[in-house]
Amino acid sequence: KVAIKGIERELICPACKELFTHPLILPCQHNVCHKCVKEILFAFEDSFADAGSESSNQSSPRIKISSPSTDRIDRISRSGRKRNSLTPRSSLFPCPGCQRDIDLGERGINGLFRNFTLETIVERYRQAARAAIAIMCNFCKPPPQESTKSCMDCSASYCNECFKIHHPWGTLKAQHEYVGPTTNFRPKILMCPEHEMERVNMYCEICRRPVCHLCKLGGCHANHRVTTMSTAYKTLKEKLSKDIDYLISKESQVKAHITQLDLLLKETECNSERAKEAASRSFEKFSHVLEERKSAALRAIEASKNLRLEKLQTQAEEYQGLLENNGLVGYAQEVLKETDPSCFVQTAKQLHVRIQKATESLKSFRPAAETTFEDFVVDIAKQEEILGGLSFHSNGLEIPEINEKQSKMYNKALISWECPGKTDSADIYVLEYHKVNREEEATTWQEIEVCSKSKIISDLDDDSSYAFRVRGYKGSICSPWSREVVLRTPPAPVFSFLFDDKCGYNSEHLLLNAGRTSVESRAGFPLLLGSDRMQAGCYTTLDYIIGDTGIAKGKHFWAFRVEAYSYLVKVGVVSSNKIQKLFHNTHDVTSPRYEQDSGHDSGSEDAFFDSSQPFTLVTVGMKKFFIPATPAAPKDPASRILPLPSCLGICLDCDNGKLGFYNAGCMKCLHECSVDCSGVMYPAFALMGGAAVHLEEAVTAKYSEYHDDI
């Protein structure tokens, strides 16, 4: 038999850390006091109401209950769902045993079984712990006598005399069940919490809980596999007995493990003391260096002070001599009393030079030394930053690396990182960032704790560069900081729009996706038929499409990707008062007149062509970006052809009439030109041949989740 005093650990509620009081069995098979369940559920729901939807996505709060509040429990009981209510409600409960959120089902607390077996064991433990404390009779007149038995039907304790009085022979009470003195009165029959008038007589093997016949007939266990209570009792008792016998047979092995654990405990204590001593030595050495630097700085300040005081004191004495009957003036006054010319001249020459110098210094007075000690201010900003990151470094914890290709700066910043070994060795990551400002030398890093390997950051300034770094933590151990990565935000707020599938959209030549974020030109059979009918002149044209939202004022930025296989794509903006010209323009763009080898002088014709366009577009295609031929552009045609970036951006400044084309990956401006913004401006695109354009997707929380999955 196991000694009752040796199982105290199993009788402690994980919430209040005290002996169980009316324990309830949770669906996860852990036990919690009835009052603790209500208190935790109240605090859990309260935390959700205060934290809002954003914090609800984080890990659930774990509550340690020290003393359950009775008024709170009453509030939950009054505000909770009534028994036998037909309105279903699912309640989440943070189990303090397994640290998981458990679904209590429709009935919530009312659907939980009371663990009478555990309650009986706790009562036996209490009796063993307080053997000297007697249970008194509930019916004796003062002073009460010590009870000798307890009636399970009456839920009361009696002395011998009171028991005979309240349980006379020949009555129904004489047939009551009585046991030794106890304070634990449990019902003889376990009733179903769902159907209060029915006793449990079956065991659900799926849910692993007792049920009644109504639960099986039409309740939530209708389709579950059940067995009789006697069969379940016999099966579970055999399994438990077998497992207990196995553990008892392995007693020597358990003792060996205990011995090994005792050695590990002592070794951990010794190693921790060594680590403390090593850390203390490191900090003492660091303190010694600081003390030396402090002493040197104080000595330098003291030496400078003495030198300055000496100079100022000398200067003060010199000026003191300029007073009447004092110093230099007094001496000069005495010299003036000399009557012998030769002696006077001999002395007065040198004296006159000194008097002149004193006169000049009096006219332009300057202290001989500075009183401020600005040159002796100790700048410890960098040292403070280094000390702020002082922690235990481990060679076993990998240094994360920020993935610049997967990171993205658009409407928000998406910063993604990974470990070289592709392992999740860190429990948590700390991401730091700051705005790169050349004017300020000292930088203040902003810190964010992240549980995943990516983070979305909002509220960054436009047209600014930010430095990012990340490190991993595993307990108190941290990795060194990753290499700093500098990313730049768009030059203006991000403008969101979709492709317009109504205004001028040619469905025969262009294909839109369902979300209207991608467009593809169909260089197929209809285009071949059209070209076959044209024996001369224009035999292929551009197909235009615009955005469904216009811009009237302000500065805006949008980005898109042009597929690498695209033959010819034009991108830019068009004014609302010129949209009709855009879609009805039948200009011959590939006729022999504009071919390089046609023999025509194309210079004047290009100028005429550019001036006749009702819109501002640049050409991309064949993995190239073509800078338009403008007076500000390079004259060499080869220098006007740039590699096509993976993502292009356009910045429209309506207030200043400027249109810029950017490499959206690094936010570098490739070309800027003037544009007439007299009307509402719309993003415009033109495609010819095989080509496709995809609008850049905005950074959202869903985007980050998808990115993490990848």
From TrEMBL:
Residues 477-704 form the B30.2/SPRY domain. Belongs to the TRIM/RBCC family. GO terms for biological process: acrosome reaction; spindle organization. Residues 336-393 form the COS domain. It comes from the Eukaryota. It comes from Smutsornis africanus. The gene is Trim36. InterPro entries: B30.2/SPRY, B30.2/SPRY_sf, Bbox_C, ConA-like_dom_sf, COS_domain, E3_ligase_FN3/SPRY, FN3_dom, FN3_sf. This is TRI36 ligase.
